[in-house]
């Protein structure tokens, strides 16, 4: 879908202190061969800070940068990959109350690490659907330090980090302009991340921890017994989503200065995201992400802010925001940098 009429006016992240991968290996919490394979150096760890508070810190930073009147905001959309607080409680309204502070809609968008990419497209449509208001706040936040998940061993793709991220969208102006988006899914692959686990009662409600490696191992056993696992090429989602975004913006991959993708280890980052679109590792955000860990939907926000504030992308350059989530579904958004980070 072609955009070009909405901007990112503010951006902020809140990433806590780092815990080194070497230390985790020395303490027996991380496997040395996985650390060497992924190249991950550290993860951000928030201790007992609630995930919504991480999102609030990032949201306030984005709001300060945008400097838009609260009464101009139409909606808040919050995303996360892990638990936020008490069941049946509304984290998004808590975040709204502590950021914009007005009685506007506050929504939760649950789509794993792809949620921030999807939120850009959703909120842009919301702002262009007839509202007289000109701005919206997107937030994301996760703290994976709960008893039901092992941040170092839950999945070998990357250890999990904690943090918050936020973006203010505006129909007026900003440091980056949304150009186009694309999305593609393979719903027949949803079983891959279900891994034979029961659907009711949900495993987490009866004390089962979240362990993606256990679910992948289930399919390896099934395959060995002659049962075909859910098949499909997840990288096709990446190629289709990116191709759609490029076509709608009338651009080619060679026009893209940098790619922001989830903070996975080196093999997964190459195999799942960069190699399918013929992008070398250096054009992604691996060097930044390997120091933070995979922070769910925060990754895309943090990666974009890092590139912009450090001057690794400058005015006139195009950045591809790219992610994929269990389901499987990929999303892509192209943004044009309109102002250098050094001007901020």
From TrEMBL:
<feature type="domain" description="Beta-ketoacyl-[acyl-carrier-protein] synthase III N-terminal">
    <location>
        <begin position="111"/>
        <end position="179"/>
    </location>
</feature>
<feature type="domain" description="Beta-ketoacyl-[acyl-carrier-protein] synthase III C-terminal">
    <location>
        <begin position="246"/>
        <end position="337"/>
    </location>
</feature>
<dbReference type="InterPro" id="IPR013751">
    <property type="entry name" value="ACP_syn_III_N"/>
</dbReference>
<dbReference type="InterPro" id="IPR016039">
    <property type="entry name" value="Thiolase-like"/>
</dbReference>
<dbReference type="Pfam" id="PF08541">
    <property type="entry name" value="ACP_syn_III_C"/>
</dbReference>
<dbReference type="Pfam" id="PF08545">
    <property type="entry name" value="ACP_syn_III"/>
</dbReference>
<dbReference type="InterPro" id="IPR013747">
    <property type="entry name" value="ACP_syn_III_C"/>
</dbReference>
<keyword id="KW-0808">Transferase</keyword>
<keyword id="KW-0012">Acyltransferase</keyword>
<protein>
    <submittedName>
        <fullName>Ketoacyl-ACP synthase III family protein</fullName>
    </submittedName>
</protein>
């Amino acid at each position: 879908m072609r955009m070009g009429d909405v901007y990112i006016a503010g951006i902020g992240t809140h990433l806590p202190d780092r815990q080194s991968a070497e230390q985790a290996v020395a303490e027996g919490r991380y496997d040395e061969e996985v650390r060497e394979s992924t190249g991950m150096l550290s993860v951000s760890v928030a201790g007992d800070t609630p995930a919504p508070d991480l999102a609030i810190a990032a949201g306030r930073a984005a709001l300060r940068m945008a400097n838009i009147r609260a009464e101009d905001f139409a909606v808040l959309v919050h995303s996360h990959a892990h638990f936020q607080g008490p069941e049946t409680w509304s984290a998004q309204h808590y975040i709204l109350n502590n950021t914009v502070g007005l009685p506007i809609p506050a929504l939760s968008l649950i789509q794993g690490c792809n949620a921030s990419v999807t939120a850009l497209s959703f909120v842009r449509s919301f702002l262009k659907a007839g509202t007289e208001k000109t701005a919206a706040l997107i937030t994301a936040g996760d703290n994976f330090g709960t008893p039901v998940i092992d941040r170092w061993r839950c999945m070998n793709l990357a250890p999990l980090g904690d943090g918050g991220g936020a973006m203010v969208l505006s129909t007026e102006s900003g440091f980056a302009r949304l150009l186009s988006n694309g999305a593609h899914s393979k719903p027949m692959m949803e079983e891959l991340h279900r891994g034979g686990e029961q659907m009711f009662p949900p495993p987490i409600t009866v004390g089962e921890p979240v362990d993606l490696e256990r679910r992948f191992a289930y399919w390896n056993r099934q395959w060995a017994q002659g049962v075909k696992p859910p098949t499909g090429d997840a990288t096709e989602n990446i190629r289709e989503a990116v191709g759609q975004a490029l076509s709608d913006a009338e651009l080619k991959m060679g026009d893209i200065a940098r790619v922001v993708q989830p903070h996975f280890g080196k093999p997964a980052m190459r195999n799942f995201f960069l190699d399918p679109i013929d992008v070398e590792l250096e054009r992604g955000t691996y060097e930044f992400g390997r120091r933070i860990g995979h922070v769910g939907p925060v990754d895309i926000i943090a990666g974009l802010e890092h590139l912009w504030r450090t001057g690794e992308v400058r005015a006139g350059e195009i950045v591809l925001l790219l992610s994929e989530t269990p389901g499987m579904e990929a999303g892509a958004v192209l943004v044009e940098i309109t102002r250098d980070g050094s001007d901020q």
